[in-house]
Amino acid sequence: MGAGGPENRWWLMRGDDETFRISLGDREGERVRAEPFGPALVLGPHRSRKTTGVVVPALLEWPGPALVTSIREDVIEQTLEARRRHGEVMIIDPGGVLEEWPDRVGWSPLDFIASWDDAMLTARIMVDAGHRRGGVNENHWTEAAIRLLAPFLYAAARGDRTMADVMRWIGTQAEDEAAAIIEGLGDDEGAEVAKVTLTRDEQQRAVVYLSLEVAIAVWHFSSVQNLADAEPRFQMSKFLNGRNNTVYVCAPPNAQHEFRPYFTTFIPLFVRSVYRANRGFASSLLDLRGPVAALEESESPVKPLLMALDDAGSVAPIPDLGGLVSTASKAAIQLITVCTDVSQLRSVYGENLARSIVNNHSSVLVLPGGHDTATAELSEQLLGSARPAGLPAARTSAEALRILPRGRALCVTGTAPPEIIELRSSVADPDLLALRGVTDGDY
């Protein structure tokens, strides 16, 4: 047994190998599951039951901590009480959509900074989140903006300041104030790097500050600044404390674009912390002996995380989604990526990267009712010459999938042949209703 075995038994008491394989649906009365910690991609138009058929069941049944992004309250309404019975629930809601919920918590990127390297990484994530890269010249100013932001973040984090102070320093170009804080810390290396970074000619200064202001504009919202200082605070150490804790990351439906950089800052920093916490996971045993053995034999305590990116293309299109998809299982992260269609992925990541993102999901669900030609092409490729039971007669496979009855889906997982499966329903499935603590009579 690995060094983390006894601690990991806390998770293993909650389920077996199947528990760590999320449910995708049913076929002929048998449960269809994803590969253990294998990323799952769910494609379907609005109201096709992506959330109630896949995301909510996964949240209700997952035996570990979870993060879910969404623009809809129904995810919270259907899972919060069930998740609360086994852990703490936290809601990150910078738009103030859920002000009446008592579980809202504050969060600041400064909480992730303990060193100069942390400041540089956080600056890169923040600028990348709010500034999509373009040509060589644009990339030059983006890199300069990252180098400029880092000292301000470092000074605020180490000097017990706030994001409001960071925005004030940048708005007034108060480099001397930030530099004085860093120098007072006795961090000679940080002070020297900051001095070099903050020294540039006046012409460059104006362009770099402009580039930086554009990239971090979301932090000018008073609601965002207030949330950065709010108590209680979201803390990774508290979240990964061995309980089934849940963080709901909620975007306002009518202001997704404005708040997007906030979410695409939080999630990469969150993921980085999970990777660090789960670095001892014995992922090489997943295919050989299953998830329970992998957890049991890990070198250090592992917190198996469910990460459901509902509305992934609009709420939090994280820049390095491709990297997350290809490496999540190595950190005991069960990833669910939910998008409207392939074209949405292409619009965010470009055609080549979108193709790689799709291909690296070990399970793909295509739900009916869509009209996207790129998704139709993917469906044809997934089916090949197969005609699984339940596929309606039609001129093409893509047309057959489009006219599938609501509640069914094309499912391709691992090396298994394509199947038409029945999605579960969080408002009708007796097992899911029981987990929610409601009965059929409540609907």
Automatic annotation (TrEMBL):
It comes from the Bacteria. It is found in: Cell membrane. Its main location: membrane. CDD domains: TrwB_TraG_TraD_VirD4. It is a multi-pass membrane protein. InterPro entries: P-loop_NTPase, T4SS-coupling_protein, TraG/VirD4. One of its GO terms (cellular component) is plasma membrane. Keywords: Cell membrane, Membrane, Transmembrane, Transmembrane helix. Pfam families: T4SS-DNA_transf (PF02534). Belongs to the VirD4/TraG family. This is TraD/TraG TraM recognition site domain-containing protein. It comes from Actinoplanes missouriensis (strain ATCC 14538 / DSM 43046 / CBS 188.64 / JCM 3121 / NBRC 102363 / NCIMB 12654 / NRRL B-3342 / UNCC 431).
